[in-house]
Design a protein that fits this description.
This protein is an alpha+beta fold. It is built from three helices and 13 strands, in the order αββββββββαββββαβ. The chain has a single domain, classed as L,D-transpeptidase catalytic domain-like, CATH 2.40.440. A nine-stranded mixed sheet has the order 3-6-5-4-13-8-9-10-12, covered by helices on one side. A two-stranded antiparallel ribbon has the order 1-2. The chain is globular, with a radius of gyration of 19 Å.
Length: 205
């Protein structure tokens, strides 16, 4: 009888754990926001208590006709979805373009770079002359505007000028602050980078 009680208790505990993962995908990645070394750079930990739960990486239910591997960006909700198939997607919190810099459309990931060099476009330098010192490129590092990873978006006309990239400014996630690029927390952009293949379709809506 005692064995049966222990068995039932164990099954109930397992069911509770499984249920928790299914309904709270954020808990699956809670340990992914700590400090970590990457290519010699020490990424600082993200203070999860200050990051709204809706912007933490999690697996969610997501019905779409797009094939697995597609990236769908919902600029209104400030969410990026990596389509997994089976009615599921990995959802990330993002920062988007501020007023006047929003954009929508379909493109593809033409190339991917780890710890990329950031070169501000001429129009940005015109708006912010202080960036002229980076006309030849800002070297990779913890303060680099593109963060730990960048995925370059091209369409039929060539380079759109927009990127999916990391940012050291974790507090900007969930806000409209960029010049049009889609930014993710560095820990999240590394995860996305490892999933997305060159040639992947990216839909921004």
């Amino acid at each position: 009888m005692k064995f049966r009680s222990l068995l039932v208790a164990g099954l109930l505990a397992a069911a509770t754990a499984i249920s928790g993962c299914a309904t709270d995908g954020a808990s699956m990645f809670a340990n992914s926001y700590g400090g970590k070394k990457d290519a010699g750079y020490q990424l600082p930990a993200i203070p999860l208590a200050k990051l709204p739960k809706e912007y933490r990486r999690q697996v969610v239910r997501y019905d779409t006709t797009e094939v697995p591997g597609t990236v769908i960006v919902d600029t209104g909700a400030k969410h990026l979805y990596y389509v997994m198939g089976g009615g599921k997607a990995v959802r990330y919190g993002i920062g988007v373009g501020r007023e006047g810099f929003e954009w929508k459309g379909t493109s593809r990931v033409a190339m991917k770079k780890e710890w990329p060099v950031w070169t501000p476009p001429a129009a940005m330098i015109k708006r912010r002359p202080d960036l002229a010192k980076y006309r030849g490129g800002m070297g990779p590092g913890l303060d680099n505007a593109l963060g730990a990873r960048a995925m370059y978006l091209f369409n039929k006309g060539g380079d759109t000028g927009y990127r999916l990239h990391g940012t050291p400014e974790w507090w900007s996630i969930g806000k409209a602050m960029s010049s049009g690029c889609i930014r993710l927390i560095n820990q999240d952009v590394i995860d996305l980078y490892n999933r997305v293949e060159v040639g992947a379709k990216v839909i921004v809506k």
